[in-house]
């Protein structure tokens, strides 16, 4: 019932906007038209610039204007706009984000990049979204690829690649101050852009973010509030018309809380604890690009990152160094791109009673290379792409991993495209898969504590995906575009467990059962995704995205006993999702925007479906001043999006009434 009310409300608001727009049409120049969107250059699909219309992959581009008019303040919130991307807020400071299923706190089959720099965490296997806490005003666009991208980006680009591309530094920005406040917290940021010399620009940004704690549940006061401070700088230098240099530096500090349910070894009851944890991260990222001829280029890139955090259940730090060289050229209608890379990773960890490692330090290295050829096949209208990446990594016992990809694009007409692809991708073992031992469950049997422990092994292999995709993209009219994709993902060697014989332990007295982490799960996921954009008038844009996915042979993740305990945290899929957005320019200064999101039941998490309605009113009296007010989750005071997992308690997402002001000078 609440879903139908939400849809009716959204339709009434949209029709009202449409009717009013007929009287006077003033286009908002900050918006991309449908025709301009089709010509947007994307680089994450082939590592070369190509029009979105001609990309042979399921790709969505989230622009800076999309994020501003959606009223979002963080990258995970912005990703709700992309079909096929599952987003769930766990509590005030934690997120679960995945592509095409496998939704979890650490979604280990999704590779997230920032200007091509991986922010995937090999310790847990996944993404720490507080490491992506950058100012949205520094972002040019987010390229969201659904489906494997491992032939170019490497392991862990299994179900998708999200590339966050920041804007070049430019002195035109000057000084900008921005602040936002709301029911669930706020932020303050300052940005300074300046020209150091002809062709040399610098941008410096500081961001402070405060997230309010979730409301108390009865007498239980929650402790998921968070404060973060980020400092970022980007330096860009055009050395010559053919050569560009770029250098980025980031540092972040965070102090957050979480409510945890812990099993204490040798005891029967659960312990409920409020834990404060600290995060520190820094990075330095440099890139040099030289272009030759009409299409040739060579680039050198390198980055260094340091990350440390104290979770309460575990303390760890990680250091990563990465070097890469890439070159591209055209020869007899063949567009080649090749590259080599070397990465060194050092993880340090302190064991706790809940999570134990044999070694306090682990050193890993990855040597990789890739090659791709894009060429016309039989006809200029049919383009084939063949790519292959190899990786020699010390995480997996398999040795060298090969990840191929083949794509076809048929330009049926000027405005219609059909594409197909087949690919293999792997998810490398995490440090926990190889060397960890963690307490999964504790109960009582005949008066004695019974503990279930999961144990990794050096023989754990990489998880494997073989994926098949088919897509259609068109622009039948200048004001209308349609993007369809369907996929079949066949997974093998996924993480499961085998249960051992119980054993009697002393000090303290207890019974222990071991779950050995092994590659013994196979799953097939099928789905379809769609995105429709329509500009009925110059002042109104309608955007809709929908996706459906299902497991053919799902793991029964609702089981809470036996060998499936260790797998229940990741085999979750949202069967159906829908988003509808209406962006309306009241006049040259005022904007009224609405967004409706529907998310189906997640049965394996026992999370009910929900509908969320967001509204925003924006005002831009002059070019350097912007103000907005809005409400998120208008329909309900609060709703659940995720379930408590292992030791972390999930909280309900609260309604948020907010205001934001930005001043540039």
TrEMBL record:
Domain TonB-dependent receptor-like beta-barrel: start-end pairs: 225-634
Topology relative to the membrane: Multi-pass membrane protein
Domain spans labelled TonB-dependent receptor plug: 54-161
A GO term, aspect molecular function: siderophore uptake transmembrane transporter activity
Main location: membrane
CDD domains, per database record: ligand_gated_channel (cd01347)
One GO term of the biological process aspect: siderophore transmembrane transport
Cellular component GO terms held in the UniProt record: cell outer membrane
Subcellular location: Cell outer membrane
Gene3D superfamilies per the UniProt record, alphabetical: TonB-dependent receptor, beta-barrel domain (2.40.170.20), TonB-dependent receptor, plug domain (2.170.130.10)
InterPro entries registered for this protein in UniProt: Beta-barrel_TonB (IPR000531), Beta-barrel_TonB_sf (IPR036942), Plug_dom (IPR012910), Plug_dom_sf (IPR037066), TonB-dep_rcpt-like (IPR039426)
Keywords: Cell outer membrane, Membrane, Receptor, Signal, TonB box, Transmembrane, Transmembrane beta strand, Transport
SUPFAM superfamilies per UniProt: Porins
Family: Belongs to the TonB-dependent receptor family.
PANTHER family xrefs: HEMOGLOBIN AND HEMOGLOBIN-HAPTOGLOBIN-BINDING PROTEIN 1-RELATED, TONB-DEPENDENT OUTER MEMBRANE RECEPTOR
Protein name: TonB-dependent receptor
Species whose genome carries this gene: Eiseniibacteriota bacterium
């Amino acid at each position: 019932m609440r879903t139908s009310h939400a849809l009716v409300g959204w339709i009434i608001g949209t029709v009202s906007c449409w009717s009013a727009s007929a009287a006077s049409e003033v286009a908002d120049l900050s918006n991309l038209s449908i025709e301009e969107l089709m010509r947007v250059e994307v680089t994450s699909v082939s590592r070369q610039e190509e029009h979105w219309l001609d990309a042979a992959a399921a790709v969505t581009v989230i622009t800076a204007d999309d994020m501003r008019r959606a009223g979002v303040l963080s990258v995970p919130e912005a990703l709700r706009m992309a079909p096929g991307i599952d987003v769930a807020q766990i509590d005030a400071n934690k997120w679960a984000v995945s592509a095409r299923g496998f939704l979890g706190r650490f979604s280990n089959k999704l590779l997230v990049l920032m200007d091509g720099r991986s922010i995937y965490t090999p310790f847990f296997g996944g993404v720490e979204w507080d490491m992506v806490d950058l100012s949205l005003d520094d972002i040019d666009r987010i390229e969201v690829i659904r489906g494997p991208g491992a032939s170019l980006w490497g392991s862990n680009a299994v179900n998708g690649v999200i590339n966050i591309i920041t804007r070049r530094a430019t002195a035109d920005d000057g000084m900008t101050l921005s602040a936002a406040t709301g029911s669930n917290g706020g932020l303050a940021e300052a940005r300074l852009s300046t020209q150091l010399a002809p062709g040399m620009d610098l941008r410096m940004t500081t961001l402070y973010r405060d997230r309010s704690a979730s409301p108390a549940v009865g007498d239980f006061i929650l402790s998921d509030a968070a404060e973060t401070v980020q400092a970022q700088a980007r330096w860009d230098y055009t050395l010559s018309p053919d050569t560009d240099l770029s250098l980025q530096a980031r540092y972040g500090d965070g102090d957050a809380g979480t409510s945890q349910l812990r099993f204490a070894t040798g005891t029967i009851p659960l312990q409920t604890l409020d834990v404060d944890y600290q995060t520190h991260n820094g990075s330095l990222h440099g890139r040099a690009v030289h272009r030759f001829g009409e299409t040739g280029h060579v680039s050198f890139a390198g980055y260094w990152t340091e990350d440390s955090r104290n979770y309460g259940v575990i303390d760890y730090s990680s250091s990563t160094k990465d070097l890469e060289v890439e070159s591209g050229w055209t020869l007899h209608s063949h567009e080649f791109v090749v590259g080599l890379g070397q990465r060194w990773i050092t993880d340090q960890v302190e064991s706790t009673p809940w999570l134990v490692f044999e070694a306090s330090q682990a050193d890993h290295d990855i040597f990789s290379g890739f090659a791709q050829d894009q060429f016309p096949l039989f006809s200029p209208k049919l383009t084939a792409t063949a790519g292959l990446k190899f990786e020699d990594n010390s995480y997996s016992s398999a040795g060298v991993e090969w990840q191929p990809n083949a794509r076809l694009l048929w330009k049926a007409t000027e405005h219609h495209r059909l594409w197909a692809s087949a690919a293999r991708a792997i998810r490398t073992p995490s440090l926990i898969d190889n060397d960890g031992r963690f307490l999964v469950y504790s109960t009582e049997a005949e008066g004695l504590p019974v503990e279930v422990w999961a144990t990794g092994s050096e023989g754990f292999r990489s998880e494997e995906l073989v994926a098949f995709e088919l897509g259609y993209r068109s622009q039948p009219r200048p004001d209308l575009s349609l993007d369809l994709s369907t996929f079949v993902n066949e997974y093998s060697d996924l993480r499961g467990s085998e249960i051992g014989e119980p054993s009697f332990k002393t000090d303290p007295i207890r019974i222990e059962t071991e779950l050995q982490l092994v590659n013994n799960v196979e799953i097939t996921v099928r789905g379809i995704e769609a995105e429709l954009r329509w500009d009925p008038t110059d002042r109104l844009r309608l955007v809709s995205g929908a996706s459906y996915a299902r497991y053919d042979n799902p793991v029964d993740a609702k089981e809470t006993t036996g060998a499936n305990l260790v797998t229940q945290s990741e085999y979750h899929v949202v069967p159906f999702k829908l988003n509808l957005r209406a962006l309306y320019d009241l006049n040259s200064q005022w904007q009224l925007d609405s967004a409706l999101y529907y998310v189906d039941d997640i049965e394996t998490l026992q999370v009910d479906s929900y509908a969320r309605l967001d509204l925003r009113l924006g005002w831009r009296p002059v070019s350097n001043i912007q103000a907005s007010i809005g409400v998120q989750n208008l329909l309900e005071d609060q709703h659940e999006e995720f379930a408590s997992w292992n030791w972390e308690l999930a909280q309900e997402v609260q309604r948020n009434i907010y205001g934001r002001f930005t001043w540039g000078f």
